[in-house]
Amino acid sequence: LLQSGEPELQSQLGLKTLHLNVSRADARDVLIKFSPTEGPSMLNTTEKGKAGKIHLPREIYRSLSSQIVRVVVTVLNIQQLNMFKEVNQTGQVLDDTVVTITVGDTSISGLQDPVQLTFAHRELPHVLCPCSWLSPHVVPVAGRTGGWHSSGCVTQPGDKETVCSCDHLTLFTLLLNPVLESSTAQSLIAVATAGCGVAMVFSIFTVTFCVFLRCRFRFEETVRINLGLHMNLVASLFLLNLAFLLNSTLSGRIQPGTCKVLGGFTHYSLLCCFTWMALEGCQLYLLFVKVLGIYIHHYLVKMCLLGWGFPILVVGVAGAIGSYGEYSIETTHHQLIARLCWITPKHLLLHYITNCSYFSLIFLFNMAVFGVVTHKSCSLQGTGAAKGDRKTWKVTLVAAGLFCLLGATWALSFLTYGISSAPVLYLFTILNSLQGIFIFIWLVILYYPKTKETTGSLSYIIRHDKNTTVSQD
């Protein structure tokens, strides 16, 4: 189809093709220019412009048996052609343009003198542009997956053009993959390390403060359970911050066995955080939605068994199949930024299931509960039920604290893919590394020093909600 000489068919399919006949006896380097709008044509050596260039070395023709060789260069607009929907594409194709080159009727590979394709483009900051070629199996066949590959091609990036040197002929393009610069990645690691260190200190303050309140003041059972849940969530955050600091300090300098243990500990800490966020959401659901007739014997103990025990099961299974080990973070040019003890690339499916999918479900549930709580709180303010010290700023404070408590800031991770993700990555890193500090400030303002008035602002709303429900019955 690509070598068809019918102009009408090529026009309908968005193909622009150049046919050349080259004599093997008079083999020479062939220079061709191409562009998405004008297609391919012979290049005048004195010609200048922004079009792409193709250099076909004479080695290609000398290895062929035919005396006269047909060279076909075709430029495809894949958006107009609409034929690569099933390709495992990990980036955006430059100008939606794919160039295919065939010489004769045989497959050509293993060239000592490579084919060179020069792709002209505008300045592309913070973008990895690998030279890629399309696997012959566009649709998965017999267990083989198709897609873009870069093996056999060397990429030489530039400000206005990128040169691809490949040892074979096939369909070529330039993929635009968003990446982080080394300086940005190093800055993010430094910010996260500093934030985690400070957050660990405040996590200790928070746990101490919660223990002090439970021992010093006589709160009702609901508030004591709330404080217990907050304390366990902050403890899991402390473990996660500790795991990150150990990772950034020790990984790359420890034995593989120790790295597996550290990777499992990091995964366990993260799962504990997510689980306790889910339990915070369940507690709010029971308090604000299922208001009446709730009593669970040894409620906090059972919560602790679930919050700390469930992640052990997941990590135990993951460790049994050898999922933990060294994980490397690299720059555009494959320069090592950092080594982490984490889930290995071979088991990334485990990461998507136990981390991404698990958190997505928790996030959806918690945000639904947060919406119900916020609606009821605003309704009480509107009816004048909440008077005195419960002003608008306090309601806002409670809402902001719950928003952080339920892990909503972790949802920023879903926005960190793309060329413009660096600011979001900074925001994600700062907010989540300082989550323990935010919770500490929220608890201090909410529960102390006016303990008689607040006794946990949540219980005030709960009591009023109960009275309202009983009166309506």
Automatic annotation (TrEMBL):
The keyword Transmembrane helix applies. It comes from the Eukaryota. It is a multi-pass membrane protein. Residues 30-182 form the GAIN-B domain. Its main location: membrane. GO terms for molecular function: G protein-coupled receptor activity. The keyword Methyltransferase does not apply. It is found in: Membrane. The chain crosses the membrane at residues 188-213, 225-246, 266-288, 300-321, 352-374, 395-419, 425-448. GO terms for biological process: adenylate cyclase-activating G protein-coupled receptor signaling pathway; cell surface receptor signaling pathway. Residues 188-447 form the G-protein coupled receptors family 2 profile domain. It holds the Pfam family 7tm_2. One of its GO terms (cellular component) is plasma membrane. InterPro entries: GAIN_B, GAIN_dom_sf, GPCR_2-like_7TM, GPCR_2_secretin-like, GPS. Keywords: Disulfide bond, Membrane, Transmembrane, Transmembrane helix. Gene3D superfamilies: 2.60.220.50, Rhodopsin 7-helix transmembrane proteins. This is AGRG3 protein. It comes from Smithornis capensis.
